[in-house]
């Protein structure tokens, strides 16, 4: 096996593990949150909860298919990663999916009052896999999840070669 082939397999297994673990972690957290706050969840959040659950399940299925090097696993991974690339916090809604499980790397643009800030964050022991809230916020943030973006680029390259 050539060195490039070994690297390709290593990346495939890494992405598969990230998707499987992130999906499991996210489903576990979502189930726990629903169990503890079901009576307090506004009906208007139900579509968002369904989308989060669907992305987490798709992440697990795509990860298993990637592990077995199935083409449809690469294809299913694309929308899973697309849902994670951009996240935002606004005055009336917060939406974020991060099925990368334990790590976050983001570049963000935040507007709070009079200040516009370009920043980055790196969190290697992140516990949460999603954020969904109608709580009012004073700041507005739009961010790019660099891990999801890198995986999406890798998936695009792999799908072009297959």
UniProtKB/TrEMBL annotation:
UniProt entry keywords in alphabetical sequence: Membrane, Transmembrane, Transmembrane helix
Top-level taxon in the UniProt lineage: Bacteria
Keyword Transmembrane helix: yes
Transmembrane regions: 12-31, 43-68, 80-105, 140-157
Protein name in the entry: DUF3995 domain-containing protein
């Amino acid at each position: 096996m050539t060195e490039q082939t070994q690297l390709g397999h290593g990346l495939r297994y890494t992405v598969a593990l990230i998707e499987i673990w992130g999906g499991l972690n996210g489903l576990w957290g979502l189930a726990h949150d629903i169990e503890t706050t079901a009576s307090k969840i506004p009906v208007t959040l139900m579509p968002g909860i369904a989308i989060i659950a669907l992305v987490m399940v798709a992440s697990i299925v795509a990860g298993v298919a990637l592990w077995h090097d199935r083409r449809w696993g690469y294809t299913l991974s694309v929308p899973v990663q697309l849902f994670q690339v951009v996240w935002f916090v606004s005055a009336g809604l917060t939406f974020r999916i991060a099925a990368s499980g334990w790590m976050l790397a983001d570049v963000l643009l935040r507007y709070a009052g009079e200040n516009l800030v370009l920043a980055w964050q790196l969190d290697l022991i992140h516990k949460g896999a999603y954020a969904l809230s109608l709580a009012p916020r004073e700041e507005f943030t739009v961010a790019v999840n660099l891990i999801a973006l890198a995986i999406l680029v890798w998936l695009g390259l792999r799908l072009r070669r297959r």
